[in-house]
Structure formats: structure tokens, C-alpha cells
Amino acid sequence: MAQKPKWVVDKERDRRAAAQATVWLFGLHAVRDALQNPMRDRLRLVLTKNAADRLGDVVPASGMTPEIVDPRRFPVPLDPGSVHQGAALEVKALDWGKLDDLARPGGGAPVLVLLDRVTDPHNAGAILRSAEVFGARAVVAPSRHSAPETGALAKTASGALERQPYLRVGNLGDAMEKLRDLGYVTVGLDGEAPETLSEAAAGLATTPTAIVLGAEGPGLRDRTRSLCDRMVRIDPAGAFGSLNVSNAAAVALFALTEPRDA
To answer: Between 207 and 12, where is the model more confident?
Structure first.
């Protein structure tokens, strides 16, 4: 029997690990939203008496029976310093389906956000929050070298993780080529780009668009950059100034979605 190539073995191993992995969400807001999300596969709910009281009818409506614990001995494997507010929920990561189905144009000109090596969960969570506010169809990131679904990401997203698709793909470049086949224009952000964001946005109001953002410092990888149809910059008001990736995402989403709403 022929031996499987290493890349096939690695892919199958990663798929099995992802299926078995669980995530601890923490904080009253994140836990409340996850309890109200029918798409969530929920496993274990740990609450202090005070947190259970503050969550009110959400807990019985979820069908879960919480473990009521002493706040001084909170038995959940969270990072030191995590502000859990007496509430933690073990879940499996959400399954948002396939890129082809999620991104398929329809109902106007959709906007996607693509993240290239954005590994900070606080940045990713803030981007998900902005994506929900401005009506982005999805946030897409590679399975590796990106922020996974964690409690810290969920807390920063302030509930958006439960409603805003966060799709992890095997290869971001391949996803960009697939989006191009679906009719998307991919727009990369770079401080040295020849075209401004506002100039580009004016001509994209009726076009499916994917904003592509890289990690702070390194920026976009070479292949990612080469697959962008256009490169744009956000001009500061003064001679100097820059935005972190989550703020840049919010500005880009506003610039691209405002003409669509006009």
C-alpha cells in the first residue's frame, strides 16, 4: 500500500486536532452571547453564584446546568490575569462552512476582510467587532499563523465572534484566487501604496471587495501582495502617523461600505 505524502498526513492530523479541540470563553458578555447562540456546541459551564444571578434567564434558556463554584477557587484553565467575572464556558469552535458558499456574491456587493498573519487575538477580536458593525460578509484568515478562536479574542470581539463569520482557510493565497474567480477585487493596505483608500473606494461601490491586511511590522507577505488587484494607503492628516491593524481595518471598512449604503 502506497504511503501517504507528508502534506496529506499533516492535513489529516490538523483536521482531527481541530475537531477535538475546545475553547474556554470567559467574561459575562462573551459567555452570555455564546449561551444564546444556537450554532454553538457547548460542553461545560462554570459560574460563581454572583455570575449566575447576573446572567439571569439566559442560563436556563440555554438548557445547560452550570457548575456553581467558589470565586476563590475558580476551576477553569485560564491564563493568569484573565478577567473572567465568574463566568466561563467550554465550547467547540464555530463552523462557518466553506469559503465558496459564504463569499458567493448576492444581495448587493459584499465586503470581506482577509488577514495575513494577524496573530494577536486582541487585534483579531477588534477586527471582528468592526466587521460586524460595518456589515462585512466574513473575516478570513489562514489556519496557521493567525489568531485562533480563544477566550481573549471572544472577549475583545464583545459578542461579535458569535455572529460575525470568522473563517480559517488552509492557504490565504489560494483563497484570494478563489475570490477572484467569484468576481471579487482584492485590495491590499500598505502605507507606501500609490493610490489612496478613498480614491479606490469611489469606484468599488458595486463590486464585491476583499480588504487584505497584514501583520503590524512585516505587513503583507510577497505572495499575498502579488495577488492583490490594487494596493492602497490610508493617508494621515499630518506628516507622520500610522494605525494599528485593527484601526486600519475599521477605517477601510467604513470607507468601502459607506458608498454601498448611499
So the answer is: 207
